[in-house]
Amino acid sequence: MADLNVGDAVPELKVTPDKYLPHRYAGASGDFNPIHIDDEFAKAVGLPRNILHGLYSMGLVARANAAIAGGDPRALKRLSVQFRGMGMPEQEIVVSGTVIEADEGRVAIDTVAQQGDTAIIKNAEAEVQL
Amino acid sequence: MTLKTDAVGKEWPATTYQVGREKIKEYANALGLDNPVHFDLEAARAAGFRDVPAPPMFAVVYSGPALGPVLFDPEVGMNFAAMVHGGQVFEWGEPVCSGDEIVTTPKCLSIEEKDGKGFYVFETVSVNQDGAEVVRGTWTNIVRGV
Fold first, then answer.
1. Interchain pair A80, B87: CB under 8 A
2. What predicted TM-score, i.e. pTM, was given to this entire model?
3. How much is the ipTM here?
4. Could you give the domains of chain A?
């Protein structure tokens, strides 16, 4: 995908995290905050249910952007995100992006992670070396 | 109420993290990554890595723990019950591979009030065993009702 130009869309990433994904991500990341892994606790503090880790959703944004460079872990140079709506397990996440800068093999991509009507990550900007 | 800003500019002790292949595999699986370089040493070497490389967002695994004592520091004085992770930036340098020893130093960049919320911004700088910077993280925590 060496010929990305400003205005081009990057391929969408669609992922539906299963019920146990927050537990696996907790183990992988070391973040065992009970709002992510304990449905009863989450409800007791006013959440609709246990919610996804924001950094997991950011990981999907990173994955979608690195995918334009074949998933090369060296390709992603910078990623900036704002966490907004809460992400939920068992609902499809759609990550989509648009090229906003393209210069000598380095592209900047404006990215959003959407779950239904909720933008769980928005104003994400990725810099990828192609 | 005036926001407590004593911790601005403060640095905390560094933490050290030893990167291993199985942890990289576990993290890559949780994110659904399928590039074989994260799972197979031969594939990693064929792609020019000295050992199995970590995915970029593995940065949270080796740099996140440095913030543990920071968030609990009474000088920072954050109200956890009202705290959310508002934003995150990572800027990557040298790739991180299994066998690396990563040292992360945390610092408080700013504490500011906007629209009745406290914005706490911390930075972590992570370097490898050769002193090369591998990632710089900027972590923004937002506390409601300050």
1. yes
2. 0.95
3. 0.95
4. 9-129 (3.10.129.10)
